[in-house]
Amino acid sequence: MTKSAESTERRRSLLCVAYAFAPVLRSGTHRTLAFVRHLDRRGWDSTVITVQPDGEPADLDLLSRVPERTRVIRTHWAPLTEQFKRFCGRMQRPRPARVNGPTRSGTGEAAGVHRGLRDWFSRLLLTPDSRLGWVLPGLAATRGRRVDAVYSTSPFPSAHLIAMLAAMRLRRPWVADFRDPWGGNPFRDLGYASLAAWDGFLERRVLRRASRIVCNTPTLQRNLARRLPWTAAKAVTLPNGYDLDVIESTRPIRDVGDDAFVLVHTGNFYGNRSPIPLLRGLRLAAEQNADVARRAKVVFVGDPTYDGQRIERLATAAGVAGLVQVLGVRPHAEVIGRLRGADASIVVGLDGPGSDLQVPNKLYEYLAVRRPVLALAPREGAIADVLADAVADNLVCSPQDEGEIALGIEWMVRRGGGFVDGAWSGVDRYDRRHAAEGLARLLDELIGARRSARSADACAAAGQGGVACVP
Questions:
Q1: Integer Cα distance of 355 and 347 in angstroms
Q2: Do 7-79+128-241+433-455 and 244-428 agree at the fold level?
Q3: What does pTM read for this prediction?
């Protein structure tokens, strides 16, 4: 759309519900922020419902990328589980002993039942996620909004609950965007069959109410269609990606000489996504190859801990402290600069159930800087699919096979690249402008369909009154 065309057409309004938004430094921030930026250029004004950044890592530079027309409403959210535990703590006060009271075994059984009920209710307050206490404040922030469409993105799925209720009240079309699976997510353990059933009900309710369902990989869309075949008619894929203008605005950052071979990992480790096999594979590679021991440097940018332990300590335990640098959380521009200054990048995926669905957002930025990628991921899965579609220069190793990881590191250091013919020829498809254009077309179609339906209803009403009408 040209500027002149934009000025003559009415700008449309989007209500966007997203937990992660600037300046919060989470991976999901970049997708939503990019959509808002590119939709603004296509005539959409966004109102973003998000949370106060208290307690979240923040990058204030991200605020400069928010369009001037975008209104950001930040709400508080209630940590319901913590509040429930505090309430239970106040209720548990010492009671005087009873001479003729229940037997010790009976008292123990009753206490066990109470603990079980407390645990069940605590987990209920975590279903579908730990941000359930955001639903009411987030919904309240949507009141009085005049919008043409609603968009929500997860994680956290609570954002979809807010958007669903808002779209129902506003009677507007709604696009639900899934960056990770809801059902079948390997990082979610509800603990009780009853809660799993309730969680499944919430997921189906959201998916049925949504006007369109967006998945960020074809693998995720296919998985959703297998689990819930009726979603196939309204599900589409809009992949994650990179912002070319952001990439090109950064300068390479390199702290070591050209003789070193720097491999950079960005992002966080959690759950089954562990740095330990990587560190042990690095040790094996250094033991087997003197060139690796002399030249390799693995740089971690992101949360400096895993499972309550500092990555430096894990590196020391693995015997590779001298080959590792842990920088912690850094501004996004510096992260890109580190990638541009590196010789290769590392992405760590999962192994086991659900591993074929997970694609870290950082992978797309790896593609944009066009450095060889060492992927610790299943050879059949979403990460491998993205690398293949982009024709990325890459090596894929099993995420748990330390020997295979060691061989991958050795090859990276020894060859430096050239693992794939015609490398990088498919990277442009992941420029976020393409996904944003797809979302804009989707929203335009939904609004057009809604207006056509309203026109048809008006014609039908007029026809009943004996008035001719052509919709």
A1: 13
A2: yes
A3: 0.85
